[in-house]
Amino acid sequence: MREHSDPRIRETTPDDVADVVRLVHELAEYEKAPQECELTAEQLEAALFGPRPALYGHVAEADGRVVGFTLWFLNFSTWRGTHGIYLEDLYVEPGHRRHGLGRALLATLAAECVRRGYSRLEWWVLDWNRPAIEFYESIGAVAMDEWTVFRLAEGPLERMAHG
């Protein structure tokens, strides 16, 4: 039995893929970037359940339906010498917030870290998302303000790849 288990939270199954894709698109809308979200059910199913999955997920259920999710993957701390979990996305439908589902999803991932001997659980949050930041601070999460995120994508990624 996992520590911090909550009957509303379970691992994602292939039957959940369409709901998770729907929720990812809702998240993109909430983050004011719906035009950037290109995720399809085929892509998510392959990432979660293909021959060599490197993406994992959990869903939150309420009233018999999926109303929230996490998608995550492993990272590695060279300084600590252990894996950790990188939380790519966490989202709960607005009508189901403030009922403990976000906390339960995070508790599930924290328990996964502890069970596997991982040293940390990390994620990013948009600077303008004060409700999320306040929630994360309330559970003891610490902002990594001394770090700046960099990304290579599209044209710059291609140019770098081809020298």
TrEMBL record:
The family this protein is said to belong to: Belongs to the acetyltransferase family.
MF terms (GO), sorted A to Z: N-acetyltransferase activity
Protein name, UniProt field: GNAT superfamily N-acetyltransferase
Keywords: Acyltransferase, Transferase
Keyword Iron-sulfur applies: no
Keyword Transcription regulation: no
Top-level taxon in the UniProt lineage: Bacteria
N-acetyltransferase domain span: 7-162
Residues in coiled coil: none
